[in-house]
């Protein structure tokens, strides 16, 4: 590999060459202009002396007709159609956000997914979460993001149904029904599509804030699509305080658990790390029972934060109630024994995604450029993906995983009785390496 | 495909031909007056709520979209004031500056306590008694229910198309591209152009619903440059910004005509109120029919 110095020299030479080229072009242009001016001068004089403007007019018209202007089609708007244009085939799922069912459009026989938004009309009128989800889905058109087709209204004026493309699977149910985990090449394809979608969102100033396997859909052509934007929002202009009540517990980043109100796209990257690990292990890796339990699971997987690895850590609101051991030398680092079949590059990527310090987590662009995707086995082309029987058509879900947090139910770590949890923790997990103290 | 951040959905020809209010027999000139007054009301309320102009402009456009087309809202069913309030409420909710229903209702109560729609300055300086715009708890509950149901109707009528791309930042970008900021009076030019964009929001021709932001920004710059007397390139520079000569001319005339229209409206409604709710509209219709009968 060439050294930095060599690189610089090449750059310099390149720059010089470009500069020269530019100057040459400028000179030519000037010359042309002068020539054109000289040519135009007599014409002007002629126009002044006689009235033969007719010569000029068709010429300019000709020029104008040559120029093609860009025309943008922004579409139009019309009232919502009625739900009776669709017939429900079967229910798929009920979540905190509403009900999802499979349906067919009567006129075209197209199969779609209908998502009926729960309308708990409160003090604020039309639910802001639904409004955000709709407006973000309208803007975020991407091959790996579920397509919002239209919005329906029903007989009840409060009814509001989102029409979305139907995909056969969600990653969570699919994994539960598979006998073997995804192959390494398949994990890469899935992860790459997921990171592509999340990167697109971040580029457009959108945070998803509820990435988890049950929100990731997969069709029978190996195409992954991100869904459920009920928690998503635009990144606010400045450091406006945000709610820390986001992301389903098992996928929630440590800074959120510690109560930060200024966070960014890094929380999504943490969730991606959790999903990556889940794809490898075929089950969620951090299944905490509550906030404290989740934190202890995180620390036992990723090691303990220190002032060096995460400088702002102790200043986070809930960090004060954690008692960390003084001696960090014996504290274990990232527990890679959990992923025995992962290559060194894979471990490096997973480890960086699950960095406790949000600043150490890679951006989606950095993830996509990671050597993990370049080494063998290469990502499997999505056309080569195996097909699976679709559960979404026939059955309801069996296992329950925790839902995304609801608005206004901020428990805060202060209300938790630390002593009892601590007691059980200590008994079963001697080596966890940190303690909780009463606040 | 991702929708372009430079485009808006535009009203179709059918939508421009007939409106919901027309189908209910409301004369076009009255509809124009009410829409104009409603847009001004939205602007005033937005300013009292200390909202940035981008948010106010978006609210005005949602308000304008609501009335357009045979499927659009009808003034016989919805008062302009309630639609204005709901548009503003809806827009702020999605913006970085959400406002409570209570603040909104208070502001609209204050504005409708003005005895005339086109108030003169002396009038505004006399502080009206607090009792004229006090909103009791019972009234608040009722108005809030109306606010929420109107919000719902706006969303359904527009098929949730409440996104608006505005020409303001585009206008500044174009001025930069034209390299005018080296000129000593450039800020005057920019201000003038932005004023034209604000004026066009109120246009009875609904310029924002029929033209893309690129063209609106270009026309505003063209007009402003002529008024401030700053020379623009002597070529068809507007074509660089995807606007042809015909559209430019149309928009310039449209933007300039708003002033005359506003003058006429002021004279027409001197000392009275433009009917901004259903009851007042019915009274106005009755008054008009009595005049024609005499």
UniProtKB/TrEMBL annotation, chain A:
Keywords: ATP-binding, Kinase, Nucleotide-binding, Serine/threonine-protein kinase, Transferase. SMART domains: S_TKc. GO terms for biological process: regulation of mitotic cell cycle. One of its GO terms (cellular component) is nucleus. Gene3D superfamilies: Phosphorylase Kinase, domain 1, Transferase(Phosphotransferase) domain 1. Residues 86-373 form the Protein kinase domain. Residues 1-67, 367-415 are annotated as: Disordered. It comes from the Eukaryota. Residues 1-41, 367-381 have a biased composition (Basic and acidic residues). Residues 396-405 have a biased composition (Basic residues). Its EC number is 2.7.11.22. It is an enzyme of class 2 (transferase). It catalyses: L-seryl-[protein] + ATP = O-phospho-L-seryl-[protein] + ADP + H(+); L-threonyl-[protein] + ATP = O-phospho-L-threonyl-[protein] + ADP + H(+). One of its GO terms (molecular function) is cyclin-dependent protein serine/threonine kinase activity. Belongs to the protein kinase superfamily. CMGC Ser/Thr protein kinase family. CDC2/CDKX subfamily. This is cyclin-dependent kinase. It comes from Cucurbitaria berberidis CBS 394.84.
TrEMBL record, chain B:
Coiled coil: none annotated. One of its GO terms (molecular function) is cyclin-dependent protein serine/threonine kinase regulator activity. Gene3D superfamilies: Cyclin-like (1.10.472.10). Transmembrane segments: none annotated. One of its GO terms (biological process) is regulation of transcription by RNA polymerase II. InterPro entries: Cyclin-like_sf, Cyclin/Ssn8. This is Cyclin-L2. The lineage of its organism: Eukaryota, Fungi, Dikarya, Ascomycota, Pezizomycotina.
